[in-house]
Design goal:
Layout: H1 27-39, H2 46-60, E1 65-70, H3 81-102, E2 106-111, E3 124-127, E4 130-133, H4 155-176, H5 191-194, H6 197-218, H7 227-230, E5 234-239, H8 243-248, E6 250-252, E7 259-261, E8 266-269, H9 279-285, E9 291-295, H10 301-311, E10 320-324, H11 331-345, E11 350-353, E12 361-362, E13 368-369, H12 372-389, E14 395-399, H13 434-449
Parallel strand pairs: 1-2, 1-14, 2-5, 5-8, 8-9, 9-10, 10-11, 11-14
Antiparallel strand pairs: 3-4, 6-7, 12-13
Helix pairs in contact: 1-4, 3-4, 3-6, 3-13, 10-11, 11-12, 12-13
Bound molecules: phosphoenolpyruvate and cobalt (II) ion.
Cobalt (II) ion (CO) is lined by residues 72, 357, 399, 428-429.
Length: 454
């Protein structure tokens, strides 16, 4: 296996083939943008990344559950306090449902504050008669269908840094400043949700939690100042795709002397860039953050073990999360051999299910969509595979928004193809709306609860 890897440095990835990198038209402008970002403060602190790794270690051991959720691609245009708050609100609601129903801690990680870059299946796309460079996320170019909009612009790297900093600042304020306090659990229910059946179901959970908090208070516990009840940890994550940007935010931790990619707490490698001898694996193997790697249906047992060896040679629990995205029809048959092989190899991993990316298709209207049933079916198959192999279905990785969008079909509102045009707002993949997200949390909790832990 890859024991012969050369010494790592934040720039060692540059000697290897890097997939999915934009063709920046002006190298000088790129270098000066990266230099600028390199001089900016880190967005996260290495100690926070270590805390997340410890929490994920509990997931790897079967004692906690991972909820990783947020936009497919954050947008420079849809950037507002409301947008961030609504997304956080759904994540908190889903986490409450999962924690309450499953009785284990839920590790909350947003696809937020840096999730801008998108890998594409083709470098160009055809719009009408025009052949245009593909949209690669707002950190690179703009989705408008003109040649000018699609030119990669290095100033966008700097703007992505600033938007990440503002988003993270608000997340910290909300999660540490009282918004996330458990005695506000009722207030997280959004208006459009309150009247729905999931909203009602959520209110029952909230009532029970409120009674439990009152009970603790009556027993003399100080629920007002206990940080466990007043604050939550919501970590940030994104796909580490544009390696120049990630390198510019990679800093040596003064406490341990180790390198951390301080653009987010957790970084993941996408399905299209997980080549063992490629630049993305090379870059991420050397940073101390917890790392994710997407694994699609073409992943062999040997591939999975080689990724573990490359990304977590010291076998640290919580260091590596394998995020499977097989598609509902294939998940059980494709995942089981991987679970068995990785378990036999002794590598501790968090197994998470991305039920979104293997179930995307184009509706007759031409909109990219996903059906809620396929999404829940993939989670069901994922849980069943774990039950059969005696491993822990450690978490879910989903694309959602707090807004009442109409991008994914089905769910309790039974959204149909005809509804897609109503509020289709994503700049990339279709996201669950708040109601579908909450429904998914209830469904996931039921599925995992009925599955015996290892
Ligand atoms: C994504 O998470 O948005 C994504 C592109 O996923 P994948 O790499 O699994 O296709
Ligand atoms: Co996506």
């Amino acid at each position: 296996m890859s024991t012969s890897r050369a010494a790592w440095s934040p720039t060692s990835w540059r000697a290897l083939p890097a997939g999915q990198q934009p063709s920046w038209p002006d190298e000088g402008a790129l270098e000066s943008a990266l230099k600028q970002i390199g001089s900016y403060p880190p967005l996260v602190f290495a100690g926070e990344a270590r805390s997340l790794q410890t929490a994920l270690g509990h997931v790897a051991a079967g004692n906690a559950f991972l909820l990783q959720a947020g936009d497919c691609a954050e947008s420079f245009e849809e950037f507002s306090a409301d947008n961030i708050r609504e997304k956080l609100r759904v994540i908190l609601q889903m986490a409450v449902v999962l924690t309450y129903s499953m009785g284990v801690p839920v590790v909350k990680v947003g696809r937020m504050a840096g999730q801008f870059a998108k890998p594409r299946s083709s470098p160009t796309e055809k719009i009408g008669d025009l052949e245009l460079p593909s949209f690669r996320g707002h950190i690179v170019n703009n989705e408008l269908p003109t040649a000018a909009a699609r030119v990669p612009d290095p100033d966008r790297l700097v703007q992505a840094y600033h938007q990440s900093a503002s988003t993270l600042n608000l997340l910290r304020a909300f999660t540490k400043g009282g918004f996330a306090a458990l005695d506000r659990v009722h207030a997280w229910n959004q208006e459009f949700l309150a009247s729905s059946s999931e909203g009602q179901r959520y209110m029952q959970v909230a009532d029970e939690i409120e009674r439990a908090v009152q009970f603790m208070r009556a027993c003399g516990m100080d629920t007002e100042s206990n940080p466990n009840l007043r604050e939550v940890d919501v970590y940030t994550s994104h796909e580490a795709l544009i390696l120049g940007y990630e390198e510019a935010l990679t800093r040596r931790d003064s406490l341990t002397g180790n390198w951390y990619d301080c653009s987010a707490h957790m970084l993941w490698i996408g399905e299209r860039t997980r080549e063992l001898d490629g630049a993305h694996v090379e870059f991420l193997r050397g940073v101390g953050n917890p790392i994710g790697c997407k694994i699609g249906p073409s992943t062999s047992a040997d591939d999975a073990i080689s990724l573990c060896e490359a990304l977590n040679p010291s076998r640290i629990p919580g260091r590596l999360t394998l995020i499977s995205r097989m598609g509902a029809d294939q998940v059980e048959s494709k995942l089981r051999p991987l679970l068995r092989a990785v378990t036999d190899s002794g590598h501790p991993v968090v197994w998470a299910c991305d039920p979104m990316h293997g179930n995307t298709y184009t509706a007759p209207s031409g909109r990219k969509t996903r059906h809620f049933d396929a999404i829940t079916n993939e989670i069901e198959g994922f849980v069943r595979a774990h039950r059969t192999e005696g491993t822990w279905p450690g978490g879910i990785h989903v694309e959602l928004t707090g807004e009442n969008v109409t991008e994914c079909l089905g769910g309790a509102d039974a959204l149909s193809d005809a509804d897609l045009d109503h509020r289709y707002e994503t700049v990339c993949d279709p996201r669950l709306n708040g109601r579908q997200g909450l429904e998914l949390a209830f469904r996931t909790a039921e599925l995992v609860r009925s599955s015996p832990a290892n």
